[in-house]
């Protein structure tokens, strides 16, 4: 009897929360100064620029063209590299450590510039016998790393909340 009451309460709460349109408001953590941005990048069509722009829009950040009184997010650099971490008996590389380093600067009018830097690391098993499949897998891993780096940049922007309100 008690088990069925718990089940009914759980189902009822789930139906109530999904029916009323309730959802998490994660974007409210972003400082108000950073909810409208100008996005700048040396290469607007690079993978990192595209993914970062999409992540900003998913977090309800309004992207506008150049305006003087709006904060700017400038993507300074996105570099990737790989390092061999293990080898096969035949001295061929077996496993690589893929690294993505991203540097950006948030420039808030009348408050200053705040540098942001994130690093994402992943391991990749490289088998030369399946080169085409491994190439496609490595591209998928890199896309995932770009998305993770973009999410980390937005989290770091959220962390600027206290610094932006201290410099008033």
From TrEMBL:
Keywords: Cell outer membrane, Lipoprotein, Membrane, Palmitate, Signal. Its main location: membrane. It is a lipid-anchor. Coiled coil: none annotated. Belongs to the LptE lipoprotein family. Together with LptD, is involved in the assembly of lipopolysaccharide (LPS) at the surface of the outer membrane. Required for the proper assembly of LptD. Binds LPS and may serve as the LPS recognition site at the outer membrane. Component of the lipopolysaccharide transport and assembly complex. Interacts with LptD. This is LPS-assembly lipoprotein LptE. It comes from Haemophilus sputorum. The gene is lptE.
């Amino acid at each position: 009897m008690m088990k069925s009451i718990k089940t009914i309460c759980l189902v009822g709460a789930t139906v109530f929360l999904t029916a009323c349109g309730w959802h998490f408001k994660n974007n409210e953590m972003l400082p108000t100064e950073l909810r409208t941005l100008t996005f700048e990048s040396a290469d607007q069509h690079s993978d990192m620029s595209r993914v970062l722009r999409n992540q900003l829009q998913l977090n309800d950040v309004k992207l506008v063209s150049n305006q003087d009184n709006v904060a700017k997010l400038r993507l300074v650099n996105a570099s990737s590299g790989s390092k061999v971490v293990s080898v096969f008996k035949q001295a061929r590389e077996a496993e690589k450590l893929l690294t993505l380093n991203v540097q950006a600067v948030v420039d808030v009018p009348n408050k200053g510039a705040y540098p942001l830097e994130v690093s994402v690391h992943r391991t990749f098993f490289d088998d030369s016998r399946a080169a085409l499949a491994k190439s496609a897998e490595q591209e998928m891993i890199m896309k995932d790393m770009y998305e993770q780096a973009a999410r980390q940049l937005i989290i770091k922007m959220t962390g600027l909340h206290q610094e932006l309100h201290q410099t008033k």
